[in-house]
Design goal:
single chain, 27 strands, Copper Amine Oxidase, Chain A, domain 1, seven-stranded mixed β-sheet, OB fold (Dihydrolipoamide Acetyltransferase, E2P), five-stranded mixed β-sheet, signal, Cu_amine_oxidase-like_N, mainly beta, elongated
């Protein structure tokens, strides 16, 4: 391998590491201004061959002078992987889907959408001779494949069998997105914690007794068991496609609210009753960022997987998610009854 190719490989490898961070949790919105894209006119440093699952493509890629990483032809690569593409002329974007995988690529924008999350890769898609090219890291980070560069050839491997293999994960539901076409359920944590289960028309929902359910039957605070793909995105939280979601235990209340954060204070009254003050972030717009919750014998205390834990783990400094209903005092912070406390235990 000559020095130029060694340098290209090093740059590509570095890019794979740098682009494996968190996605931005922002809603997908149309651009305020109409995008005008001109064909790329910079000199191409070198042309590169493309192989997908050991099959050489007719179309190749390129590496421009001074670019961070090589570019690959979007349509040729994704179609070789058996994915479906839909071109949107209005904003020069492409929708790409296969099973539970869905992403959106917009010409000139370093914002690759995965289930309403923006994921930057450091390089925007480029329109060259009416063909859209994306950075090579797209195949790794977004499509869950592996990418290597050697001898003037970019090799992309994606094992569909591994994508379809199932693993089972249980957890407490902390967020449900049920708007439009792109739906998801988050379990085992909120914000950047936990796992996001992307759901689609193929996802099966059922109760523990086998009764058929829908996404609308799930609520935050419920305990579910999910069968999902082994493949996950490298975003925070990681995302994966859900094949089946089973409602193991319904939430204590159908209209629960939640606050995720640290227990700032534990108080015990003269009659022995315990209250905790949680400060952090609300799980929804209607939830509180700080709340005082009274614990009772009916308060359910579990870990993030939904397994029962001892009340002794509810201590000052513990990271928890407190669930409650809408019956709160108008004090600051508001006070209510703890229906469920989810404790983040130290990983073993």
């Amino acid at each position: 391998m000559n020095n130029g190719m060694k340098k290209s490989l090093a740059v590509l490898a570095a890019t794979m590491v740098m682009t494996s961070g968190a996605a931005y949790a922002l809603p997908v919105q149309a651009a305020d201004t109409k995008l005008t894209v001109q064909p790329i006119s910079q000199a191409v440093k070198q042309s590169l061959a493309i192989e997908v699952n050991n099959q050489r493509l007719d179309e190749g890629g390129y590496h421009k002078a001074g670019a961070k990483e090589p570019m690959i032809p979007l349509r040729a690569v994704t179609e070789a992987l058996g994915m479906e593409l839909t071109w949107n002329q209005a904003d020069l974007s492409v929708d790409i889907s296969k099973n539970q995988l869905w992403t959106k690529v917009t010409t000139g924008e370093d914002r690759y959408v995965i289930n309403k999350l923006y994921k930057p890769l450091g390089t925007a898609p480029e329109l060259v001779d009416n063909k859209l090219y994306v950075p090579a890291s797209f195949a790794n980070v977004i499509l869950h494949g592996t990418v290597s560069l050697e001898g003037g050839t970019i090799s992309i491997q994606r094992d569909d069998q591994q994508q379809q293999e199932h693993v089972t994960t249980s957890g407490v539901v902390t967020s449900i997105q049920d708007e439009g076409e792109y739906k998801s359920v988050q379990i085992q944590g909120s914000g950047r914690d936990g796992i996001v289960l992307n759901v689609g028309d193929e996802t099966v929902f059922e109760a523990a007794d086998g009764k058929a359910l829908t996404l609308a039957d799930l609520t935050i605070g419920a305990v579910v068991k999910a069968e999902h793909s082994l493949a996950m995105t490298m975003s925070l939280p990681p995302q994966t496609g859900a094949y089946k979601i089973t409602l193991v235990k319904p939430a204590a209340d159908k209209e629960m609210f939640g606050t995720a954060g640290k227990i700032e204070e534990v108080s015990t009254s003269t009659d022995g009753s315990v209250s905790i003050r949680i400060k952090g972030e609300g799980l929804s717009e209607q939830s509180q960022s700080e709340v005082v919750l009274h614990l009772s014998d009916k308060t359910v205390i579990v870990n993030r997987q939904g397994e029962a834990v001892d009340k002794s783990e509810v201590v000052e400094g513990a990271e928890v998610i407190g669930f409650y209903n809408g019956m709160l005092t108008r004090s600051l912070p508001p006070i209510g009854q703890a229906l469920q406390i989810v404790v983040k235990q130290a990983e073993k």
